[in-house]
Hints:
The chain has helices at 14-25, 71-78, 105-128, 147-158, 168-173, 188-195, 247-251, 263-271, 330-338, 341-356, 390-397, 418-442, and strands at residues 3-10, 31-34, 46-49, 52-55, 60-64, 83-86, 95-96, 176-180, 200-201, 204-205, 210-211, 216-221, 226-230, 235-243, 256-258, 273-275, 277-283, 297-300, 310-313, 323-329, 365-367, 381-383, 403-405. It is an alpha/beta fold.
Amino acid sequence: STSRSAVIIIGAGVSGISAAKVLAENGCADLLILEASDRIGGRIRKESFGGVSVELGAGWIAGVGGKASNPVWEIASKFGLRTCFSDYSNARNNIYDRSGKIFPSGIAADSYKKAVDSAIQRLRDLESNCAVDIPNGAELPLTPKTPIELAIDFILHDFEMAEVEPISTYVDFGEREFLVADERGYEYLLYKMAEDFLFTSEGKILDNRLKLNKVVRELQHSRNGITVKTEDGCVYEANYVILSASIGVLQSDLICFRPPLPRWKTEAIEKCDVMVYTKIFLKFPYKFWPCGPDKEFFIYAHERRGYYTFWQHMETAYPGSNILVVTITNGESKRVEAQSEAETLKEVMSVLRDMFGPEIPTATDILVPRWWNNRFQRGSYSNYPIISNNQVVNDIKAPVGRIFFTGEHTSERFNGYVHGGYLAGIDTSKALLDEMRKHERKNENTSFLL
Ligand code: FAD
């Protein structure tokens, strides 16, 4: 038998939860959330590792201390989430070469300035020539060559575009970033949000309007409603759907639309790049790296761009945890996801022995998240090509009949961030509520709003 809901929300990440909360708060309680995995949170996910809680997905609340207040920071403050200030700017004073020497600050600063100047120049060239759509990360005219140039170029482009281009998150909310270091995890905020409208007991959601392990495979849509089919053979009917699956999932064939999505929609979805960002966690029997807040971030300069370049020690967040984190992205992420943990451990140990000498101990545990190969994610976050116009994100966000889209990738100003997902969920639900009210006025005998 099939049940019919006013709204089905697909996905219980931050955007799906915030969308559902807005609907519930506006009198639309007849909703159903279908989540493919066995938990809520999506790309906000903690795991126990080496005796502490580490964040496999989002780790920072980015954009704090500015003229407007970041809503995620407000929620985190309200619920007392434990965070630590992160100062990445120190990283440039801690650049190691392959023989373990730290580059003198003068050389590092010069290389940084050169890299920023050339990145700005390249951006101007792109903008003055914006008829051609050159994707992010494409081969650019002034290509960095030495290991230190490659390392800085990688940090600039894959982490700190703010040095080159104003980023709305920093412009609106401020440039400070806080690392979440709370045993309950970043995801605790989502449970607290869900508690407002779903029935919970002892920290668990027991409401039957949230269904886990429900992988949506088909959306059959018409003027009259939508039929949603899940992998386990269940069928659900709804008047409207809010779809929060990531841009990577939309680019994949996980969900079949009948009839297919219009061309303007699929073309926009194809235009958005998917960024893969992987934090590899390593546990050691003792610390052998320099500590102190000005040493929290360090860089390894290798002739291969992005080869285990960006490092962080967890002593600030969790003193005595003896954990290091190395971040890789895109091509390197895909390469490492495809190999065994033993192979990855061998590579990272050889990098660490370059930096800190042959006698350091081997890590006793390693954790490699696989966001690219996760069929419910297919990547870490959206990345609009630098010179793409607003039309692309508007098309990605625009509803198709009764299907409304949400997720960080639909946020015009904050895509790629937790607050982007949070605000997108609110926006999408408001648009849907407007639509429902319009429909209600035209057709008075069907009321979905109380
Ligand atoms: P998701 O969290 O992906 O939620 C979508 C949900 O839909 C998922 O739970 C998924 O399982 C489900 N789903 C997918 N397909 C189906 C289907 N067919 N049927 C049913 N359910 C389905 N942001 C920051 O602000 N700061 C950071 O430091 C930061 N670092 C990051 C690091 C990493 C490694 C990653 C991966 C992300 C990071 N982000 C960061 C980005 C941030 O995590 C995301 O922008 C945000 O969590 C996305 O939320 P969402 O609701 O749009 O998507």
